[in-house]
Amino acid sequence: MQASDRFNINSQLEHLQAKYVGTGHADLNRFEWAVNIQRDSYASYIGHYPILAYFAVAENESIGRERYNFMQKMLLPCGLPPDREDD
Amino acid sequence: MDPEIAKTQEERKRIEQELASLTKITFDTDLYGGSDRDGYVTSIPVNEDEEPEPDNEVARKLASYTAPKSLLKEIPRGGDDEDAGFKRPSKIIDREDDYRRRRLNRVISPERHDAFASGEKTPDASVRTYADVMREEALKREKEDTLRAIAKKKKEEEEAAKEGGGAAGSAPAAAAAPKRRNRWDQSQDNENAAAAAKKAKTGSDWDLPDATPGIGRWDATPTPGRIGDATPSVGRRNRWDETPTPGRLADSDATPAGAVTPGATPAGVTWDATPKGLVTPTPKRQRSRWDETPATMGSATPMAGATPAAAYTPGVTPVGASDLATPTPGAINLRGAITPEQYNLLRWERDIEERNRPLTDEELDAMFPQEGYKILEPPASYVPIRTPARKLLATPTPLGTPLYAIPEENRGQQFDVPKEAPGGLPFMKPEDYQYFGALLNEEEEEELSPEEQKERKIMKLLLKVKNGTPPQRKTALRQLTDKAREFGAGPLFNRILPLLMQPTLEDQERHLLVKVIDRILYKLDELVRPYVHKILVVIEPLLIDEDYYARVEGREIISNLSKAAGLATMIAAMRPDIDNIDEYVRNTTARAFSVVASALGIPALLPFLKAVCQSKKSWQARHTGIKIVQQIAILIGCAVLPHLRSLVEIIEHGLNDENQKVRTITALSLAALAEAAAPYGIESFDSVLKPLWKGIRSHRGKVLAAFLKAIGFIIPLMDALYASYYTKEVMFILIREFQSPDEEMKKIVLKVVKQCVSTEGVEADYIRSDILPEFFRNFWVRRMALDRRNYKQLVDTTVEIANKVGVKDIVGRIVEDLKDESEPYRRMVMETIEKVVSNLGASDIDARLEELLIDGILYAFQEQTSDDANVMLNGFGAVVNSLGQRVKPYLPQICGTIKWRLNNKSAKVRQQAADLISRIAVVMKQCHEEQLMGHLGVVLYEYLGEEYPEVLGSILGALKAIVNVIGMTKMTPPIKDLLPRLTPILKNRHEKVQENCIDLVGRIADRGAEFVPAREWMRICFELLEMLKAHKKGIRRATVNTFGYIAKAIGPQDVLATLLNNLKVQERQNRVCTTVAIAIVAETCSPFTVLPALMNEYRVPELNVQNGVLKSLSFLFEYIGEMGKDYIYAVTPLLEDALMDRDLVHRQTAASAVKHMALGVAGLGCEDALVHLLNYVWPNIFETSPHVINAVMEAIEGMRVALGAAVVLNYCLQGLFHPARKVREVYWKIYNSLYIGSQDALVAAYPILEDEHNNVYSRPELMMFV
């Protein structure tokens, strides 16, 4: 970043963005991004009742069970993080 | 050979130049008009902060068309208020009163023992522990008591002596002698006390000089020559003719006791700064030193070395003075503080020396006639003065210029320019030498010990923070913060804190130093413990500073300090100050404690507070403890509620304290608590009700005032029933105190009456019968109108009473006073009537009162001589408006007055008359006095030639009010006559005139455009263009609106032509306003009337015009919103072109047009065009200019709204994992704003990721299908 843009609105914009959990940055790897995607997806499924109901029908589970499952999956949605190659 | 080389070189240069001109960027002069592009702004700010703006009635009515706020408020920078935001740097001491200046009397105490750090160990004897400090405090208190006792005894003795002396008949001599001796005695006492203190303290001599408080007071600022007077001549030799020394200081040498010299130091300040000076009478005093060189004297005689007085007070000793007259670089007074006063004294002294220097032979020759005089030989015994100091002063002067000499060049001399500091340090002010002088000694750094090096480093950094440029300051501050623990708390605070006590400190410097403390506090954390008291000494004064921000800063520091040091240390550090003998110290300590309480929580401090408030030892401790509670209430407001009961319990016994001051502060604290808790918490005050109400019967004066104040704040918390009972209980005392001559009491009584009356349980009848008669008899007198605060309080209280008892009682009582002969009193009456009537209406007022009222108001209005606050005008307006139709009978009379006053010689009177018309126009209409208004209209019209702009503005305002009320058709003079008269007035540059005029013209354009020929409107259009750049936002807004009205009235073509031409002008502000006006015309007259001409204008190959067109398009699409869907295809080619232009501003403006377009047509089926435009916008994401990139990002945001997040995500995906970091950064930024904007919508559009060995990236749920 140049010295001149350190104080302009755009840097503030990035600061603002960085406050949200799901946002990314240039050094994000595939795994981290995928985790965000998965969690967002589960949150979205749980948030939309019709979708939840649809999944319940498809999986032949109760809606509450589906919701519980999704919430559980949000913990480690993609499994353990892969070992870093660089260190 | 040589010419050959030169030739080759020249050849090469020529070729290079040719190449350069080929590769250089050349601009197409056809396209850019060959104009100077430097004058252009390469990017335009898009969003600026908004400022809240008071709505004005007329503007709101007119505001059917709007322009973006960022434009309307964009103000061209004027020259006149450029420095409005910058205060000249000011010294803190200059604005302080005597009380606040007492901060300089405090001593920065040495560090104290940190019980936490040393654990179980017994503290070293050399360390000051809590016990030591407490002992010293006790000693000080005892000493003060003793001194007071001595003084008292002396006084008694003196009185006795006077009585006795009068009887004996030798009164004057007898009275003078003991008086003089008194002083001696006193100082000797002090000496003794100091010695005693020294013995008691074992090895800690830091406050010895301070132990002589009497001295500073009785001989505070010695001027040269005064010392001698103060000392009685005890058989001294008369030596003054021997050496005529400057300043007659010889005499001080003859003083019998050595104690005099230290006594001559200006009050304690300097002593405190460098506590090294030990007062020791020197044994060698008898030797005459007057022929010695003063330079050597400083070091040769132990006296000068031992007493800092010699260096500190150059005014006293000639030594310092001559020393400083020719300062040598190294010796620039590193010894002591030099206050500005001393500097002035020095300068003055030097000047006097110059004038009084002995005349030379040449001068004498020139003065006296040649004959008749004889030059005598000097006597053999005469020895000329050889004092080098005097030689230095005696500058040889050429003949004829007795008072001025061209000085000889002296390269070693410093003049007034401070020596340049080595190593890029910022410049030092003379006062700084004392603290930073060591930095000037350019010794080898390597030779210094590590400790000294550290000190030097700290000093350098501090100097940079204090006097450096902002970048210097910033890095220095960062270094200080980062290395705080490395430097250590001791060296840091030992350097910083004395600086804060510097008498010449400026606001800005203090702010910076306080900031340093704040930062290092955070880093040092528990290491600050030994220094807590030191820090408090310099920070506490900030708590009572008159500057709000200083107070806040002080609170912040103390709060951080208490978090770093912990409650125990804070209490240990501040406990000794709680019963300090100095009220100033106690006051600031109480405030500091309240900050500690709010930082660490009140419950933590409660036990300590309880103990302090019950202290048996001294009333000062109780007083301070209770004051802490008061300060807590003031500081944290309603947050006291959870602890209210315990706080009240802690202080309640103070109401019955034996000391009057404690009783007073207790009542005041209760008042503060009740005020903070309002409207809750009455149950916590149950226990104090009885003592309070009992107290008001037994107390008088100040205590009573405090008690009443507490009652006044407690009553509003009560239930109606209790409030009524307790009010009746207190009321007879209040009524008794109505007659009190004490101003403070009056104010408190008024306030309490107001508080009592406004509570629910107090009935109107009771007030009417019991309070009103006395109230009016005592308070409604002329004297009350003279003091501003009394005046305000009385008006407020009366209005509050009126709210209870109604208009009639109050107005009926004071209406007669409208004809009082005192004008301030009339004004007070008028203000009260205005407030009462506008609160409660005039329905209570009967016919008789109405008559009296109008009569009185007319009288008061006509008799006024000065009315800056418009009290009379407002009162008149309020009464007339609330009476409504009932004023009809009086209107002719009122209008007569107005007409007469419109013709008055004084501009102020004319202005007021015109203002009155605009206030009562609505009522006149209600009374169906249209004929009268028409008449007034004609009169006003005749006065349009008014030359005072303020008056002219008011006249225009009055005309506007009349036009608004009676309408365009009935207006006299007719609109077609009125408007041409207004056109030239539009040229007037005065803001008030402009605003009223443009409002009037706008109103006519809106409602009665057809009465005026189109040509007149065109003329007005031209005038209006100028007004688009007015300073005031209201004017610009009204102008833009008026454009809309005019365009609607006469059709857009002509107006548009004018505006488009205006795009070619150079001035940016003007162009910006024009683009707004174009957009407004487009909105008023439908876009299709404007767009063709506008787009055609884009073909003009001129940067300004094209940008103006793009900007207009941007505004246009902003205003027309969804209407844009019909035009989007028409302007797409133009935007394509603009988005591909080489000029940045083109792309920026086009991007913002695209944004508005996209937002306007979201969901209206224009996706194809938008995707097309997005393809043109997208390549601009790598722009770096802030405004451009901002516009581009916003355009993409607009696209997200219009096209959906999925589309934009697909654009994004290509770069999120791009190999180049710069690219990834930009793409992630876009992704992030996309994510924040529509996180949920992205779920469906995320790409399918393949699973990797252990990790599941796929989302199987989305594959489900029923």
TrEMBL record, chain A:
Look up the record and report any one GO term of the cellular component aspect.
precatalytic spliceosome
One GO biological process term: mRNA splicing, via spliceosome
Q: Which InterPro entries match?
A: SF3b5/RDS3-10, Splicing_factor_3B_subunit_5
Q: Which family does it belong to?
A: Belongs to the SF3B5 family.
What is the recorded name of this protein? Splicing factor subunit
- Supply the source organism for this entry: Erythroxylum novogranatense
Which taxonomic lineage does the organism of this UniProt entry have?
Answer: Eukaryota, Viridiplantae, Streptophyta, Embryophyta, Tracheophyta
UniProtKB/TrEMBL annotation, chain B:
Q: Where do the HEAT repeats start and stop?
A: 647-685
Where is the protein situated, by its record's location annotation?
Nucleus
User: Which domain of life does this protein belong to?
Assistant: Eukaryota
Q: Which residues form the signal peptide?
A: none
Q: Name one GO molecular function term.
A: mRNA binding
Q: Name one GO cellular component term.
A: spliceosomal complex
Cite the SUPFAM superfamilies for this sequence: ARM repeat
**Compositionally biased region (Low complexity):** 254-270
Q: Which residues form a coiled coil?
A: none
Annotated GO biological process? spliceosomal complex assembly
Q: Ranges of Basic and acidic residues compositional bias?
A: 137-147
Q: Where is the TOG domain?
A: 843-1078
> Quick one: where's region Disordered?
36-55, 137-303
Q: What InterPro entries does the record point to?
A: ARM-like (IPR011989), ARM-type_fold (IPR016024), HEAT_type_2 (IPR021133), PP2A/SF3B1-like_HEAT (IPR054573), SF3b_su1 (IPR015016), SF3b_su1-like (IPR038737), TOG (IPR034085)
Pfam families this protein is in? PPP2R1A-like_HEAT, SF3b1
**Keywords assigned by UniProt?**
mRNA processing, mRNA splicing, Nucleus, Repeat, Spliceosome
Q: Does the keyword Repeat apply?
A: yes
Q: Which PROSITE patterns match?
A: HEAT_REPEAT (PS50077)
**What family does the entry list?**
Belongs to the SF3B1 family.
This protein is called TOG domain-containing protein
Species the sequence originates in: Erythroxylum novogranatense
